[in-house]
Structure formats: structure tokens, C-alpha cells
Amino acid sequence: MKKDMVQEEGLLQSSLILNRKGLNHGATGNLSCRGNDAFIITPSGINLENLDADAMVEVGINGDIIKSKNNHKPSSEWLFHRDIYASRDDINAIVHTHSVFSSTLSVLGESIPPFHYMIAVAGGDSIRCSEYALFGTQELSNNIIVAIKQRKACLISNHGMIAIGKDLNEATNIAIEVEHLAQVYVQAKMIGTPKLLNDRQMCEVIDKFKNYGEWRKD
Fold this sequence. Notes:
218 residues, alpha+beta, L-fuculose-1-phosphate Aldolase, eight-stranded mixed β-sheet
């Protein structure tokens, strides 16, 4: 099977997983995989129930459509996918969701602090929330690049969440973990003030995560 066909099928399966777990619904969110001087991304405005592998769109680094089997348009948010790939050589897959708890924190403009050691899954001692900008714009893309610097996830103000990874499996599982963390954080704040880990404790966790193994298979 050709590489692009494998990627298209992978995007479909990851989209369906995120839908089943409630991280996306309807036509919300988008996913992509890096290719050679291009990336394959989910289409714009297609309900997840009607999505198939042939619906995926290949987009060049310049924004031109390279391949669209059914004349679908790429996700309206293709721009930040392109810019993340351009700025991060270590990243080969991107997952964007409108999941409930991540979106809840995003509409408050809140980052997720180190209230739980698994925050390190996102690559640092916090999960930042980007500044607000209109979807699909260069301003939004620029804000996301700042928020996700040296991280593998961020929230997008008044919008949702992004997770990135070396492959689609990692990006998808980080998205799932970040949404779980967001849920625990929201629920903890309903009861009281979450206890935060200090810098030393988070440094220990981040260092240990370097050899944590295939946590993504849990």
C-alpha cells in the first residue's frame, strides 16, 4: 500500500477514535500528517459520520491543493498545520479538537498549570493557552506557534486544543490525555484550589518522561 494511502486511512481511523471518545463531533476539528513538501489533511465541512479515506486532501507547503480525489477543500484551518510543520522538524502529525473540557478552559483563556505530573506528556510544566484570533487566519497560526513552542500540546483561546507528535498515534494519544487532564483540572477547581507541583518536582517528571517508554499504548 502506498504511503499516502496509509496516511489517509490513518487519518480516518484517528478521526473516528476521537469522535467515539467525544473529543470531536459533527464536522469539528481536523487532523493531518506530514508528507514530502506537503501534508495530508482532513477535508472541510464533512461530518465525521460521512468521512472516508478518499476524502482526505493533500496540500502543498505553498497552500495549493496537490490532490483531492473528490474535489473536497482542505480544512479551513490548514494554515496552522502548514506553519507547525514548517517550524517543527520533529513533528509529523497534528490533531486539533473541540473537546469539551479543553474548550471550557480555552474560553476562560486559562492555561493548564502543573497540577498533575502527566502535564509532562505535553513536553513541559504547563499546557499553554494561545491568544485569541479568528479561525483560519495567519494571526491565529502565529499565536499557536508561540503557545506550542517546546511543547506537544496547547489550548487555543475561545476555540479548542491542539496536540502534535512524531506520528499520528502519538498526536492522537496526547490529545486524549490532554482532554483527560483538562477534565480533572476543571472538576478539581469546582471543589477547591488544585495543589500545584513545584519546578523541581516537574523537572524530575520531565526528565523521567525521557525514558518513560511507550506510554501511548496504555
